Amino acid sequence: MKPSKEEHEKIQAQILQHLFDTAKPATIAELRGITKTSASETQYHCERLGEKGLLEYKPIMANRRVTEAYQITPKGRKFIMEKEN
Known about the structure:
The protein is α+β, with helices and mostly antiparallel strands. It has one domain: Arc Repressor Mutant, subunit A. It contains 4 helices and 5 strands, in the order αβααββββα. The chain has a 3-stranded antiparallel beta sheet with strand order 1-5-2. It is globular, with a radius of gyration of 13 Å. The termini are far apart.
């Protein structure tokens, strides 16, 4: 069954809030632990947040190799700080 728009928004909010709270880039594997979704679904949500300008791709070094990670943008921080509860 296809996830609802509300479910998508909830997962994206979890990703954005985690990146805001930690203030450091996170890998797909780390974000999967937050969202409890598959790697592909987590990647999908990161890509959608990137399209909105709320996240950006940031390659990082991990175990002597470059791995993909995402970090929150200034626009993403503003979104978190100014959202209505």
